[in-house]
Amino acid sequence: MFRSFSSFNFRVWFIGALVSNIGSWMQSTAQSWVVLTQLTDNDAGAMGVTMALQFGPPLVLVGWSGWVTDRFDRRRILIVTQVALLALSIGIGTLLLLDVMTLPLMYCFALAMGLVVAFDNPARQAFVSDLVARENASNAVALNAASFNGARMFGPAVAGLLIVAVGTGWVFLINALTYLGMIVALLALRTGELIPRTMDTASTRLADGFRYVARRPDLLVVFAMVFLMGALAMNFPIFASTMALEFGEEADGFGLLSSILAIGSLAGALLAARRARARLRVVIVATGAFGVVTIISSTMPVYWAYAICLVFVGFTTVTTLTTANGYVQTTTDASLRGRVMALYVAILMGGTPLGAPVVGWVASEFGPRTALLVGAAGGLAACAIGLIWVTASGRLHRRDETRFRFELDETRPISIITRAQPIVTPEEFSDQAAETTPIRLVDDEDDDLDDDRVAARR
Q1: How many CB atoms lie within 10 A of CB 423?
Q2: Phi and psi for 406 in degrees, rounded to 5?
Q3: What is the C-alpha end-to-end distance of the chain, expressed in Å?
Q4: Residue 78's pLDDT is what?
Q5: For 341-380, how does the pLDDT look when each residue is reduced to its tens digit (9 = 90+)?
Q6: What would you measure as the largest C-alpha separation in the chain, in angstroms?
Q7: Is residue 126 predicted with pLDDT exceeding 90?
Q8: Is the dihedral of CA 61, 63, 65, 66 positive or negative?
Q9: Has residue 416 got a pLDDT over 60?
Q10: Which residue, 323, 301, 299, 319, is CA-closest to 311?
Q11: 164-197 CB burial, b ≥16 within 10 A, e <16
Q12: Helices in 6-136 by DSSP H: which ranges?
């Protein structure tokens, strides 16, 4: 489960990310509570607009952010983005302490944070694969998600207590300090031990990531499922805050719900780390399970019953996203991974500007329980898309000797070497050498093999 910790760089990264993630969850909780209770009169629609402004830039800038991730040093990109986010947190906290923050100003800060995160997230996602050997990439992605969700267990609860005790402004200033943890970790990395990669210098290849994904129907299906989850299912700040008010709770009750959600999220991330590799079938099952448990949570009559349901909501959500993330990274060509991950992040986060205002409006007009049903519909629709595709594509086979009497073909990123292609040193050792198994070259007597048989060597 923890094999990636054998790498010094990953250990340093994990600690820095954990500190930074705790602060980020504190700030996210404080921001939602400020918009809902201080800047508006329990207006969930305003929360939806704030989320749309914050998560919209990754969708708009997906092409450029992915190219920047592949073109420049990812470690330096992350140092710049962390410093920028630190400055924005200080700005928000100061305005709140001076009692001059307004809703339009908060919208501006949300947009600014979205612009920075548009470049931070793809670099962060792709950089994890630069820290460990290729065979541990899926495990590193899962442990990185465990750090994110482990922080979620503490950040929101601490934020709720601090809001009640000292006010929201101090929460933003404390978060500014936690960014230093990530900056120090990035500076402490042993750059000579990072997995070597080739920097792309051709601006004309900006659209290569789009073309690559267009030729991979399995990735298109994963992206469609992730989009539905991001747009409708993952509006947890809206769900948790409005349900907290539904049960008569204050900021500490809201923060506790977010932390309870993280218990299941952390369990999902750790179980994902145990798997040898990320599989598409896990993504499909997890989205369906998310829809079911979310419907159940919408019927809970009391605060603690709803809180218990959130453990399972968190588990299914993180199982979906961690497995989808690992699947995309481990089945994508190394030279294009930054651009493909930028597209993945843009679709995941970019769905929020479209879905969050709708979910917020539903919560305001029809109540939070109806909004939960909208989120459940997103998860069930994602599951249906995955099931339809694996059936229609012929990947699903009946096999009586397997546990569930069905077998699903999996994508394996193995390159083919033919006599027409010279054998050269791989551009990125971690992908081409660590994952590619030896494949016999085509013999002279096999020259009459048709294209289908050659392709079958994948």
Answers
A1: 8
A2: -135, 155
A3: 29
A4: 93
A5: 778 877 887 777 788 888 989 998 899 999 999 999 999 9
A6: 81
A7: no
A8: positive
A9: no
A10: 319
A11: eeebbbbbbbbbbebbbbbbebbeebeeeebbeb
A12: 8-33, 44-55, 57-60, 62-71, 74-97, 103-131
- What is the rounded distance in angstroms from the CA atom of residue 165 to the CA atom of residue 60? 39
Do 277 and 330 contact (CB within 8 A), yes or no?
A: yes
Distances (CA, A) of 209 to 65, 74, 213, 340: 11, 17, 6, 5
pLDDT at position 448, please? 42
Tokens of 110: 């949300």
Q: How far apart are CA 245 and CA 42, in angstroms?
A: 9
205-214, 233-242, 407-416: which has the highest mean pLDDT?
233-242
Q: Hunting for tokens 């989205």 — which residue is that?
A: 287
CB contact at 8 A, 46 and 105: no
415, two tokens: 């390159």
Place of tokens 């590193």: 140
How far apart are alpha carbons 342 and 335 in whole angstroms? 13
Mean pLDDT comparison of 74-78, 189-193, 253-257, 269-273, highest-scoring range: 74-78
pLDDT of residue 173: 94
Residues linked to residue 408 through DSSP beta bridges, in sequence order: 396
Region of poorest pLDDT, from 73-82, 146-155, 231-240? 146-155
The single residue listed with the structure tokens 């900056």 is 183
Q: Which two tokens stand for residue 104?
A: 């339009």
Sign of CA dihedral 114, 117, 119, 125: negative
Identity at 131, one-letter amino acid code:
L
- Residue 398 in 3-state DSSP? strand
User: Sign (positive/negative) of CA torsion 229, 232, 237, 239?
Assistant: negative
Distance CA(63)–CA(81), nearest Å, equals 18
- What's the confidence (pLDDT) of residue 220? 93
- For residue 101, which phi and psi values (nearest 5 degrees)? -70, 135
Question: For 16-20, what is the mean pLDDT?
Answer: 89
**Separation of alpha carbons 3 and 14, rounded Å:** 13
Contact 181, 19 (CB under 8 A): yes
Q: How far is CA 309 from the centre of its chain?
A: 22
Provide the angle, in degrees to the nearest 10, between the axes of the packed helices 303-330 and 236-246. Answer: 180
Please check whether residue 137 is in contact with residue 330, taking contact to mean a CB–CB distance below 8 angstroms: yes
Report the amino acid identity of residue 147: S
**Mean pLDDT over the full length of the chain:** 80
H helix or E strand, kind and range, residue 391:
helix 368-392
